Amino acid sequence: MIHRTIQTEITKYLASSDNKIFFIWGPRRSGKTTIINKISQELKVQKFNFDLQSDREKFIPQKEELEALVKDNNVILIDEVQNYPEVTVVLKILYDEFKVKIIATGSSELRQKSSKEFDTLAGRYRELFCLPLSIYEIQNYEKPKNSELKEFSQKLAKNLQIFGSYPEVYANSKLSDKDKIDLLQTVLDAYVLKDIIDIYDLKNAKLAKDILTKIALQLGSEVSIREIAESLNANVTTVSNYIEIFIKNYILIALPSFKTNLRKAVSENRKFYFYDLGIRNVLIQDFRDLELRQDKGGVFENLIISELEKERKIQDAKLNFYFYREYGGKEIDLVVENYKKQYQAVEIKSKDGKTQEIFPLPHTTSVITTLNYLKEINNLIEK
Fold first, then answer.
1. Are 332 and 359 contacting, i.e. CB atoms less than 8 angstroms apart?
2. What confidence tens digit (pLDDT) does each residue in 30-54 have?
3. Kind and range of the H or E run holding 76
4. Are the CB atoms for 219 and 273 separated by under 8 Å?
5. Could you tell me if 269 and 222 are in contact, meaning their C-beta atoms sit under 8 angstroms apart?
6. Burial of 240 (0-12, 13-18, 19+ CB in 10 A)
7. Could you tell me which of 85, 121, 237, 298 has the fewest CB atoms within 10 Å of its CB?
8. Does the model's pTM come out above 0.85?
9. Which domain holds residue 61?
10. pLDDT value of position 199
11. What does DSSP assign to residue 120?
12. Based on the domain organization, do 122 and 232 belong to the same domain?
């Protein structure tokens, strides 16, 4: 089993006097259930799966029922907590009345689903993320020697750009390329799409997949929701709502444009990237070698943006990410803004390149390539 960064935080939490509710957010198949199963086995406590009605029924806001629950479980473990938004009230009671440790996994869409009830948990919880494997989790697992690091980083970049980093896809060395593609198709159809369609009661499964496919074909480019809607003969509001659902469920990453009061900066559209390129590639059914693909620049850009977003969430880094474009068309791939309003302009190139000096505020510059991405991503997050 690949050690996940979040496991270190869980260990600290369990050993501490902290009784805040510990939420672990992330997409299906990202390893959340594996982690919570491991905790259940180590602590010899029950895991409650909110996919099951029988488990949801055990969490009702009645003191005698909750007393029995706490008596039997000194740590309460819940999987797929978003399937029972009403549990927010129960979690508040468990925290206020019983001071029991609670670890709950799921989609942070619970926040939207339980709305005002979730707001009552303010100050009573902390949240971390379990996303597809990060490059540093893989590096810590593989443990390449310094002399092997260059070859390792290039091989890793190639692998992640084609098959992505879902744990069951990356970590199973026995899978052939065909097996990986079949598994990614299953993850897309049975979990990514079916799950979201069921949870949100979306009316058009084909539209959901078509929207994702349209976005998958526009990596590195600004996306017009209106154009997608027109091309699919769909309502603009519906397309926009579907996209926001994909963002909230860790399928898509939205990169907005950086705005200043200066007139020369322009863009109303956002760019979208995938948390996992294996899912993106299965949408467009393209698993060719990168050198044979016209989209290789956008794919590498997606890899870097997704790894930065993973690290930002994993480390709770106080950073904002943007792209920047002028009216004349000149563009900076990525602008990183920290909490002190300090800026770094970043060019993302599979080979050597340099940043264009067009960003209007004081800033530093850097270039991320296949040769330096392991170092540069870490540098950006730590600044």
1. yes
2. 999 999 999 999 999 999 999 999 9
3. strand 75-79
4. yes
5. yes
6. middle
7. 237
8. yes
9. 5-129
10. 74
11. T
12. no
User: Can you tell me the distance from the alpha carbon of 234 to that of 232, in angstroms, rounded to the nearest whole number?
Assistant: 5
Please check the confidence at residue 346 and state whether its pLDDT lies above 60. yes
Instruction: Average the pLDDT over 170-190 and give the result.
Output: 94
Q: To the nearest 10°, report the CA torsion of 325, 329, 333, 337.
A: -20
Q: Which of 79, 101, 129 is the last residue of a domain?
A: 129
Q: How far is CA 378 from the centre of its chain?
A: 17
Gap between the Cα atoms of 216 and 274, Å rounded = 8
Helix (H, G, I), strand (E, B) or coil at 130: coil
Q: Cα(106)–Cα(114) distance, rounded to whole angstroms?
A: 14
pLDDT at 382 over 90: no
Residues 273 and 377 placed together within one structural domain of the fold: yes
Q: Which of 152-166, 195-209, 236-250, 297-311 has the lowest mean pLDDT?
A: 195-209
Residue 142 vs residues 3, 125, 290, 303: alpha-carbon distances, Å: 11, 33, 23, 19
SS3 244: helix
Select from 74, 106, 129 the last residue of a domain.
129
CA distances in angstroms from 151 to 103, 156, 371, 376, listed in the order given: 39, 8, 9, 17
Model pLDDT, residue 309 = 98
Are 267 and 331 spatial neighbours (Cβ–Cβ below 8 Å)? no
pLDDT of the residue at 119: 87
Query: How many domains, the chain?
Result: 2
> Rounded mean pLDDT of the chain?
92
With a pLDDT cut of 90, the percent of the chain lying above it is: 80
- Do 185 and 92 fall within a single domain? no
Q: Are residues 189 and 333 in the same domain?
A: yes
325 and 277 within one domain: yes
CATH number of domain containing 70: 3.40.50.300
